[in-house]
Amino acid sequence: MVRHFYFHIPFCPKLCPYCSFYVEVGAKNKTRRFLDALLREVELHAAAVQPRTLYFGGGTPSALTIEQLDYLFRGLRERLDFSTVEEWDLEANPATIRAEKAALLREHGVTRVSVGVQSWDDALLKTLGRVHTAAQAERTVHILRDAGFANLNVDLMFAVPGQTPAQWGATLKRTIALSPEHISAYCLTYEEDTTYFRKLLDGEYRQDVELDAALFERTMEMLPAAGYSQYEISNYARPGFESRHNQAYWSGEDYLGFGPSAFSTVGLRRWQNIPDTAEYTRRIFAGEDAVSFSEELSAATRRAEMMAFAIRTREGLAACDTAPFEKELREFRELGFLEDRDERVVLTTRGRLMADAIAEVFV
Ligand SMILES: C[S@@+](CC[C@H](N)C(=O)[O-])C[C@H]1O[C@@H](n2cnc3c(N)ncnc32)[C@H](O)[C@@H]1O
Ligand code: SF4
Questions:
Q1: pTM beyond 0.85
Q2: How much distance in Å is there from the Cα of 140 to the middle of ligand 2?
């Protein structure tokens, strides 16, 4: 029985130059027909599911209009049993939230909104190609609070071109002052086929590994000191506000993804819907398969993948599971990157800076 659901809403007000998610700018395919396709896809699976977490990501789910959100959520309630839903997340870009929309989300039962703030510095927001200002992002947080949301996440990015430690420190400080329950602080990744990646290749942007590490260390000092526990490399939460949806991914639970480009993993089967909204919609209505990629993982690959996720979390791995890798891990252990805690192996603060290299050992 699958309990975790992801909905990919691929619309954005503008394409951010660092982003590699499958998204569309403009409203050509942001139609009732697309919503009907999503609902139809849900129907295909509705018999064998019992939702515990729902996650609307993208893209920008908050870019749907009030009428569209209302239509989609009503349709979902007709098709799925919501009685067991414990967490219902929705990602929002600050440029797309008004009081009426926030109220509608709350009325329908969304429990957690993730706000894409990225930075509280207007100059950096420009560098990031964001469509909102810092003041607008702050207003969005207040609008959501006023609508009754008691579980908010703020997304931030560090290692942005031109960002100084002082700017990042100020962004963390201002975020803490707003008191969200959860903070995601992502290190910028230069993703292939993005403007940022081209600028990196052209030499216009440069990566400074030491500076990036210093910014990450600053994050790991400031957020825990303010009561946010780092329960995964990029995620910090007040006690009890960890994202259950993401924890389900990291612990290797099955999940179904709906919408263009969405991934699903059930048992050892993984598949992805076609990353093309018009074609996704067409196929669904033609009764064709919307899947464009599918693979059967070996048990060993799936296990390795789960270990690579788990080592990035606060709980780390059971010591018995790492035993077969002790030889490969010895050097990391000697360098003080790993420690043993209650029969578990976890990353130290310094080890978190090396998480990718350590996770590779299992893959
Ligand atoms: C799908 S977006 C969130 C919602 C909304 N689309 C927005 O941007 O406001 C998820 C988050 O991923 C992060 N992100 C996107 N691209 C990234 C990249 N190349 N490197 C690091 N973080 C990235 C951003 O913090 C972003 O808020
Ligand atoms: S970062 Fe968010 S708003 Fe920007 S293009 Fe990616 S999904 Fe869209």
A1: yes
A2: 17
